[in-house]
Amino acid sequence: MHIASNIIGGQLRAGSRQRDSHNPATGAVMGRFPQSDAIEVAAAVAAARQAQPAWAALSLVQRREYLNRVADAIAANAERLATLVTQEQGRPLGGVGPDQVPGSRFELWGCEAWTRATASLELAPEVVFEDETRRDELHRKPYGVIAAIAPWNWPLMISIWQVIPALYAGNTVVLKPSEYTSVCGLELARVVADALPPGVLNTVSGDGSVGAMLVEDGDVNKIMFTGSGATGARIVAAAARNLTPTTMELGGNDAAIVLDDADPKAIAPGLFWGAFLNMGQTCACAKRLYVPDALHDQIVDELKAIIAALPMGDGLQPGIAMGPVQNPMQLKKVVALVESAREEGGTIVCGGVLPDGPGNFYPLTLVTGLRDGARLVDEEQFGPVLPIIRYSDLEQAIANANRLDVGLGASVWSSDSQRAAQVATRLQAGTVWVNQHGMVHPMVPFGGNKRSGWGVEFGQEGLKGVTQPQVISLKK
């Protein structure tokens, strides 16, 4: 069993209370982590506040050197951290590359790659106006202390997405991992913090009450959150009381539209992983698949064949491709949505039955025969279930894809990429992929619209998002 600690001001803090963390594949306790109290939250913010001026005073080149040391430390600890992710989050170890399952090792590779990519960016002043009388430069300054609240679905990679740009821009950070994945989250933070000056990265851990204390702290200068819309609304309300800026990534219910000229066999693997990556527990997974009548049955058959070939089980065992749902709360939601689909006339093509035995396992499930308005279509399932909706009119399919109040991602699938790109421009989502889904990149801005949040992460625009603009206006 792994015992995790917080790190505050460069010192490990075990805390006065401990919580158990469970392996979702077995139900067994895999580790323990602290339940932070108000004193520890205040201490973490104070440590970040104290360390921030010296950290911001370093040059961008110096901070780049630190972050490359962080990337080296992640790489050196990758297998150990990947094993903790599998034990706590449930994703199989897997590997990297087109012939391997994108599992926990893939997540650690992503942590290293995102760190190095972010550290390669520049943040030079921009001349925004100049004439014979004046010169105006736009500089980018750090906010100060950033509170980063990470989710349980990609507990390490999303932490890196929040933490690394913030640090690179000269901020210090207090990170709170999800209570469902705190052991691996805190262990990653320790590895990162050990490569940095004391107090630059600090952590707190525990349930939602700890997150509430963190975002309500008046010494926090910006909040970054990835998670549910309901929790996001509470964070925004708390932030408003202190006028604290936020970046919010609140998930979505991504639509994928297959056009009538697509090749079902060719696109089936991309559709499958677009929907079922990480057991569908990814904000930007395809969660509604719109298919023309003429291709419906063939696409269903192709997806069903892929599902039949992928073994499910404890991800520490060899040969396992798919793991459990991460927590009982999410499993209960998935089961309820599938049952509602049955009641609303849906056909369960495969899966759809909660298995006996330990762990939070649920089979990969395809559902046909539903229309827009069904719960499984309208509500984000965030699990291994995909509704496949027939359409005969592309205009109606586009309207249905846009009808919900969320808009994180979407995709269009076609043998004619230009035609697909034209459809893509009409979809209301922060990112629309063509012939792929969920393919984020460290240099490409990513964020949602409507109730999927605001602000972007990644690349130059994401780096600007953790800075404040300052204009220096020079009279000649």
TrEMBL record:
Single GO molecular function: betaine-aldehyde dehydrogenase (NAD+) activity
Give the residues annotated as active site. E249
Region of interest called Disordered, as start-end residue ranges on this chain: 1-30
Pfam families named in the record: Aldedh
Name the source's superkingdom.
Bacteria
Which controlled-vocabulary keywords does the entry list?
Oxidoreductase
InterPro entries linked? Ald_DH/histidinol_DH, Ald_DH_C, Ald_DH_CS_CYS, Ald_DH_CS_GLU, Ald_DH_N, Aldehyde_DH_dom, LUC3-like
Keyword Oxidoreductase belongs to the record: yes
Q: Does the keyword Secreted apply?
A: no
Q: Provide the E.C. number(s) assigned to this enzyme.
A: 1.2.1.8
Q: Which residues form the Aldehyde dehydrogenase domain?
A: 17-471
Family, as annotated: Belongs to the aldehyde dehydrogenase family.
Protein known as? NAD-dependent aldehyde dehydrogenase protein
Species annotation: Herbaspirillum seropedicae (strain SmR1)
